[in-house]
Structures
1.
Amino acid sequence: VGRRLYYKLGRKLCRRDYLRLFGQDGLCASCDKRIRAYEMTMRVKDKVYHLECFKCAACQKHFCVGDRYLLINSDIVCEQDIYEWTKINGMI
């Protein structure tokens, strides 16, 4: 057992599980504001987002279950905007 425990949402978590569930620094990958323990979040790989921040960086559309997107750095881009987003940002 490790030396440090984290307490969140009434649960005791080891460091690995805390980081897996809540991210490295507790900040939203989109707005860089703190994510509080009671807030609902979305997770993509090692990035954690407030629900209201989990939207397309190009058109600002919020995603629904089953929507396809691409994660580019910390930006989430919907399937319809991927080509234009990468073109505008010099990626193609």
2.
Amino acid sequence: MDEKDMKILDLLVSNARISKTKIARELNITEAAVRKRILNLENKEKILGYKAVINYKNVGLSASLTGVDVEPDKLWKIVEELKKLDS
């Protein structure tokens, strides 16, 4: 992985929907080179996938599953604090 691959990853992390044309312009390389580099990053499992960031409240969902490590003697204090939060 070289500096251009790292820049591609940085751009994709910032905006996974960025076009290959924009990446090519940013790196001063061809769009074909960008496609080849991204495919290589995917094949080497440097890129594991792409995800959508959903506005759950906007689509009518408000639940969340969150894991928390808590010391046993503080468990009920944490439960009471969580109950106070807006849902």
3.
Amino acid sequence: MKYTTLCFIKKEDSILMLNREKKVWMGMWNVLGGKGIENEKPEECAIREIYEESGIKVKNISYHGMVTWEHNKIKFIDEPMYIFFSEIDKNYELKTPLKTPEGILDWKKIDWILNKDNIGVIKNIPIFLKDILYENKIFKYHFIWKNNTLKDYSKKACEMN
């Protein structure tokens, strides 16, 4: 099964973000993540992607939900995206901004990410981040996009295992 991961890395009051160099979401601030490889569990993929994109070796990672979506009426139900979160020690040093093959890495303040007037962050990122930080639940999300504009979404709380 094809899938991708989305990985929120928190350090104090900031999240490590990536301004994408290439599509999808070129020029927009997103979090780390990527495609799973054969026989790799989503959690393993998240840990690998975090390391490949930032050099950070996370020790603790938690699962926070699954995302399906449709874009321009094409449904991506069979290619879910899994959301993960990890908090790293305040003394961990990753000097940013940092240019990488994927784009520019930088620590962004949570208030900046969640600001309703911020048009530089992909629109579903603040939704996920609020739920990760302020809800003690796992959610199943479904997003409807048209020409990279978020039109609607739904979320449903799932049982925590």
